[in-house]
Amino acid sequence: MTIPQAPTPTPDELAALRQRYRLERERRVRPDGARQYRATEAEFGYYAADPYVRDVPEREPMHDTVDVAVVGGGFGGILAGARMRQQGLERVRIVEKGGDFGGTWYWNRYPGIHCDIESHVYLPMLDETGYVPEWKYAPGEEIRRHAVRVAQKFNLGSDALFSTAVTSLTWDEASGTWIVATDRGDAFRATYVVTATGTLSEPKLPGIPGIEDFKGHTFHTSRWDYAYTGGTPDGGLTGLSHKRVGIVGTGATGIQVIPMLAEDAGHVYVFQRTPSTVDVRANRRTTARDVGADHDGWARERRENYLRIVSGETAEQDLVADRWTTSAGLLEKLLPSFRRQGDRKAFEAAYEAADAAKMNELRARVEQTVTDPDTARKLKPWYRYACKRPAFSDKYYPAFNRGNVTLVDTADTHGIERVTEHGVVVGDTTYELDCLIFATGFSVGTSGIHSGKLPVHGRGGTQLLHAWARQGPRTLHGFTSNGFPNLIQMGSLQNASSVNFTHILDEQAVHAAALVAAAEAEGALIEPAREAEDDWIAALAKDAPDHEWFHAECTPGYYNREGRGRPNGPTAYPHGAFAFHELLKRWREESMGEILQTRSSAQSS
Ligand code: NDP
User: In the UniProt record, does the keyword NADP occur (predicted)?
Assistant: First the structure.
């Protein structure tokens, strides 16, 4: 894997860019950092309410016992359930806040919604279900339906609890089971618990003064109000035809929504703070032949190939060949496999030159598409490619050539300054609006057992986050922790991550199910020794990448804790997801017995 080749910018050009990037960062960094946002709770709870279930069906609280409780019914939870079923587990209960399976794809149904990871590698279990997507990048509804398809195939609905939030997990030493409590009065028992609560699941709002005063209609993109806008995710938003619509946010979501609003709304005001990079999308219909879906295991091979490339490993062929894979060298710059390429200074210089060439190409794309020079100037991104999540669209820039779309740049005022009863204030101008839509993203790390909102009481009543308070998180491979038997954590903490997160989740599900199957076979508990956690943390620390040098110079966003830089240290496996999966496979073959403890000795220890 090499960094993409492009004409090398001169040293003077690079120095000028560095200076420009610094200035653009300074325009945006705010002293309140991540505190600038508001959670969609209490008086803002309306923004997080489930628009798809008007009346939650009544049911009796559950007090029974299941084999496995899975917290979360998105792809992580569904895959955990499916892999458990494949291991022969009968009573698998998924508990999900939403009214059905799907997670992100249940909640996000905004117009234009698509996945920008290729559908043939993003949709899990294609081999198992025989489903072959027909578009390179699938629409959200197809993905949501696939989530339901997988859940149905493994009969996960029969025991699931929807519109239900888990409120605590408590280990009961005497019975060797977990007590799972929920906001619907359930208190059932489970031999094993898998937590799959997602990473970007709680919508957030900007803490703009006056936001509560707005008298027009308002909602967050992850809770799209079709009753107001009319139409479907495919468009036809007839309810907006005479409306003045404001949209705040131009991240991966805003990029997809804005062209759809432009088609149907009376007038659209796009409130932008930082422009995204918007690369070529080239969505197209695909045939089974195009994607090599002609033999068993084709989907597994394709996604392994993709993961290899985006993890910085070498591959003979690039099967997906899109802008993620061809830009992988710029996105995975922090992996040791890249940093090892010769001398570090030389690597960083080559990286900077390649990055500048890529960003010049993206800025040129704006100029070539957007006809008004002032709008084009404002849409150009000035930071390094990997500072923010890249976006892809062939419809976004052309939307700004329409007479009914106005771009309002808010960088100088650090975002929208004020919301009034009738609209939005930026600088000297008030924009009167009928509808204000927030495409302002999600709180990072504020849901699930690592956030404190879902307390986990392990052996002796010890709370997970209290146990970690002094020395930081302690796990083996990110999945299991001493003192918390039979609890399996999914997610990227001390585990691995990748742009194709469903692949990561599936590997995690396979691992979780293998642990459970081994424990069942031995009549044992799953619990790592403290020494195993120490060894894992040491292994993570040994090659931990120094993110600081890169992220400290980035424009703010959730990648760098709103400008504060990314913490160094052992937060994830440093050699990439592909290598991590190899490591897990080896460990399951050679060492899995180490984590199993006989029930009697473990319970008395
Ligand atoms: P993001 O957090 O990426 O974007 C939020 C946007 O809101 C940013 O443009 C931000 O500006 C802007 N914003 C926040 N506060 C203000 C303010 N006060 N005034 C003006 N603008 C403001 O959220 P998204 O929902 O776009 O994306 C979240 C993640 O979801 C993505 O990063 C991606 O991982 C995932 N996603 C994936 C998709 C896929 O196809 N696979 C599609 C959509 C989302 P600023 O940048 O200046 O902070």
Answer: yes
